[in-house]
Design brief:
Strand order of the largest sheet: 12-11-10-15-14-13
Helix content: 40-55%
Structural class: alpha+beta
Strand content: 15-25%
Shape: flat
Radius of gyration: 52 Å
Distance between the termini: 141 Å
Largest sheet: 6 strands, antiparallel
Length: 872
């Protein structure tokens, strides 16, 4: 009845407060809305001092409306009015965000007047925009005043109800006592017997102690679980024989315990203890005990299964993160330590590391070792091991089935491999082994060895199954890495066979180069240095889009084509045009085949440098522009006509001519050097300029500086870099004459050439040179047109050039014995190392190269055969 009365009082108070608060909210909203819509408020807000008018008006309205405050504020919450004038101009306490959106918002806050129930109403203009806010409300003390006045009446009513309830309860209790006195002793005895039978029959131990630490009651299950004697009831807990000490301490403490786990002998008990309060004060405790030994065993097995599943799950994510055989082996060894084994070693067939399939009877190389300690006596990484047939590794490698050696000390077949090391392993504490073969697609790649030392129990059959499953999952990643290694090695071999192994001999430039294939697969970048006639040299850099064997093969085709076109001595724009036609034909040939039949895209930059004129002619097809480093250190990106990438067709290529001072550096590169995920091309070009702004460095030093600044740790694209420092063929090594357009000039040119050869110390070449010049000048005068010029270049060979204004192409003929002419070019070809023709805007140049005396040359033999005398 007391609870009912208290509940009723609480309900009345809450209801009253709810009604009062609702009334306060309604009144606040009404007053605020009325004031917000009052006439003249909009005009007053536009005045320079709204508070002067609004403060007295708000106070008058507040007193008339019976609220505790009316506050007018701007949209930032700054007050124009307040019952406390010192609060004017300060920020309003409350949430005004809903009202700024045009909503009426009520809330309870701690304001300047105390706990307040307030309403905030927007003041909107004709255009619907919120111009100001009005808040009105009551403080909580005024709201609860009504409840306080009603409280005496409510308490009087409750007291009257309690008095009536007390009288009624007394009457009912008296009636019940009379009825209870009629219960007989047999019924009461039977009731207690039933209670005792249930207490001792339950499969949960029950103990009851008093406040002095005596054991009042222990049922049969409690005595069995705790090993208590039959006469334990009535004894002090400290004197009960056979009771575990930790259990006795818990019972004597009297504290509350919930599902505490204690060991008692070979049992695992779950104990719950609650203090009892029979007469309102602690006088003992009630304890229940459950045997959870079997549950613990099941839980342990479930936990073991969970850990093994977690190991397999983690292995799926941690093994095979890279397509590298050695890295995959290291990941396999690391994932199993220490969760499954104390030491793990991975032995792979030697061919597997190189990407090949293992052969029968192959030796195995220790590829990875992981363990809880580093001072183990196991074979180190890199050791080539020839396992004896008696060892579990050899048996597993031969049969493809995992081998379990529970006790290494008793395994003579394993110890026969290396008795001293085997004894050291056993002495170290390693006592159990699982050797599981790595098998993928029916091929055994190697053996994984799991060693145990810390845990005293040896490996069992369940752990053998786990090792087989773990290794089977890792074998797939290992085989993928092996196959990738093979494909990558093939692609790299193909690519390197297609790239220049050494730069050719030439004296026009000092050249340094660098090439690095991408880590994810070789691509189609290439570079070339091609000597041309007239001491000139061609520099080439290109890039085929894509990676793999197809890109490398396409690069080889394009590089071969560039060499062939260069032998024709074509200008750069014409070479790029022919390459463009070639790529279009390749794409056309690939139509109807697989997606790798054609060229996905290719770029190229072709530059020709002449050391005599110090002029460089450049053209590019969609490639990045070159950089020129002047001798004073000025570095600039050469602005060239871009030209379309190779294979698009339909658009011409343009050339640009650069005048390079002696000692200038011309830098050609591919996008793999400057483009990276963490930076764009513009930033890469600026870094490249910064690395090259040291003219005192030679090309090799500049190349190292560029790589140190720009080369990423793991390039995702091929990187090609070519840095060439220009040289000049000085006037002392160049002789040039204008030839009068008349036959008599041939003899004068021979004499002038012979004199110049004597100055150069090349008199031994005089006869061959005079004969070549006679034939070439005669052909120019007879079949060409003016002007005719002769030029000799003294470099690592002697170059004879005859210029004329005709574009008529000369042809090598093989004259019959009865022919009177037609042997001129044949003689030139026999006496020179190389000869050829190149065309200029003014006509053509026929040139011939002769090896300098003392070098390996066929000129002397040809000359001797021509004169029909023995070679000197």
């Amino acid at each position: 009845m007391v609870l009912l009365a208290a509940g009723a009082l609480l309900a009345l108070v809450l209801q009253s407060r709810h009604d009062t608060e609702r009334e306060a909210r309604n009144r606040s909203v009404s007053v605020a809305q009325t004031f917000a819509h009052s006439l003249g408020l909009q005009d007053t807000l536009k005045t320079s001092d709204p508070s002067k008018t609004l403060q007295p008006l708000a106070e008058t309205t507040r007193k008339a409306a019976g609220v505790d405050f009316i506050v007018v504020m701007d949209t930032n919450g700054i007050r124009y009015s307040h019952p406390q004038p010192d609060r004017i101009g300060k920020r309003f306490v409350g949430n005004i965000e809903p009202s700024l959106k045009g909503q009426v918002h009520t809330e309870s806050v701690d304001g300047p007047l105390g706990k307040e129930i307030q309403a905030v109403v927007p003041v909107t203009g004709p255009d619907g925009k919120v111009n100001a806010l009005v808040s009105a409300g009551l403080t909580v003390k005024n709201v609860t005043g009504v409840v306080d006045r009603q409280l005496p009446v409510i308490l009087l009513a409750i007291a009257t109800g309690l008095a009536l309830a007390t009288v009624g309860t007394a009457l009912i209790s008296r009636r019940l006592r009379r009825q209870t006195h009629g219960l007989g002793t047999q019924e009461m005895t039977r009731m207690y017997e039933h209670h005792d039978a249930v207490l001792h029959a339950v499969r949960e131990g029950v103990l009851i102690t008093d406040g002095e630490g005596r054991l009042l009651l222990a049922n049969d299950e409690a005595k069995r679980l705790l090993g208590l004697p039959e006469d334990a009831d009535g004894r002090h807990i400290a004197d009960v024989p056979g009771l575990d000490r930790r259990m006795a301490d818990l019972l004597l403490s009297g504290r509350e315990a919930t599902d505490e786990v204690l060991e008692s002998g070979d049992r695992l008990l779950v104990v719950n203890q609650r203090p009892t309060h029979p007469r309102g004060r602690p006088e003992g405790a009630a304890i229940t005990i459950r045997d959870s030994t079997e549950m613990q065993v099941l839980t342990s097995r479930a936990e073991t299964a969970r850990r093994r599943l977690k190991l397999l799950y983690d292995a799926g994510g941690d093994i095979g993160t890279s397509l590298d055989v050695v890295r995959t082996a290291e990941e396999l060894a690391a994932v199993a330590v220490p969760r499954f084994a104390d030491f793990v070693t991975v032995d792979l067939a030697d061919q597997v590391i190189d990407g090949e399939e293992p052969r029968a009877g192959s030796d195995m190389r220790r590829t990875a070792v992981s363990g809880i300690r580093s001072d183990h006596p196991l074979y180190p990484v890199g050791r080539l091991i020839d396992f004896l047939p008696s060892t579990p590794q050899a048996r597993g490698y031969g049969t493809g089935r995992a081998e379990l050696v529970p006790h290494l000390a008793d395994a003579p077949g394993w110890q026969a491999q290396d008795p001293p090391r085997a004894q050291a392993i056993v002495d170290y504490g390693i006592h159990s082994l699982i050797a599981a073969p790595l098998m993928a697609r029916g091929v055994v790649l190697g053996v994984v060895n799991f060693w145990r030392s810390q845990k005293q129990e040896p490996f069992d059959e369940d752990e053998l199954s786990l090792a087989e499953e773990l290794v089977a999952r890792a074998a797939v990643s290992m085989d993928n890495a092996r196959r990738y290694t093979r494909e990558h090695a093939l692609a790299v071999t193909l690519q390197r066979s297609l790239l220049p192994r050494a730069l050719p001999e030439q004296s026009a430039m000092d050249v340094a180069h660098f090439y690095l294939p991408a880590q994810s697969g070789v691509g189609g970048d290439w570079f070339d240095v091609i000597p041309l006639a007239g001491c000139r040299v061609a520099l080439v850099v290109g890039d085929v889009v894509g990676h793999g064997l197809h890109a490398a093969a396409t690069m080889g085709r394009l590089r071969t084509a560039v060499h062939n076109f260069s032998s024709l001595d074509l200008p750069p724009d014409e070479i790029l045009a022919r390459l463009d036609d070639l790529v279009q034909r390749i794409d056309h040939d690939g139509e109807g085949d697989d997606v790798n039949g054609g060229v996905l895209g290719a770029t190229c930059l072709y530059a020709v440098y002449d050391p005599v004129s110090q002029r460089c002619t450049v053209a590019r097809a969609g490639h990045l522009p070159p950089l020129v480093v002047a001798p004073d250190g000025t570095t600039e990106i050469v602005e060239l006509p871009a030209g379309p990438p190779l294979g698009l067709g339909g658009m011409p290529f343009e050339t640009a001519e650069l005048d390079l001072a002696e000692g200038s550096q011309l830098v050609l590169y591919t996008d793999g050097l400057i483009e990276e995920r963490t930076r764009d091309i513009g930033e890469g070009l600026e870094l490249l300029r910064a690395a090259l702004s040291h003219p005192d460095r030679d090309p090799h030093e500049s190349c190292r500086a560029v790589l140190d600044m720009l080369l990423p740790p793991r390039p995702t694209d091929d990187v090609a870099l070519l840095i060439a420092r220009t040289r000049t063929l000085g006037p002392d090594r160049v002789a040039q004459w204008e030839v009068p357009f008349q036959p008599s000039a041939v003899g004068a040119m021979r004499n002038a050439a012979a004199k110049k050869l004597d100055e150069w110390g090349l008199g031994d070449l005089g006869f061959a040179t005079e004969l070549i010049l006679s034939e070439l000048i005669t052909n120019a005068l007879r079949h060409g047109s003016a002007p005719v010029r002769v030029r000799l270049l003294h470099d690592h060979n002697l170059t004879c050039e005859v210029w004329d204004g005709s574009s008529t192409a000369p042809h090598l003929r093989y004259a019959a014995t009865t022919d009177e002419g037609g042997r001129g070019l044949f003689l030139v070809a026999q006496l020179s190392e190389h000869w050829g023709t190149r065309y200029t805007p003014e006509g053509k140049v026929i040139w011939a190269e002769l090896a300098l005396p003392g070098g390996e040359s066929g000129t002397e033999a040809a000359l001797a055969a021509f004169l029909d005398v023995d070679a000197l």
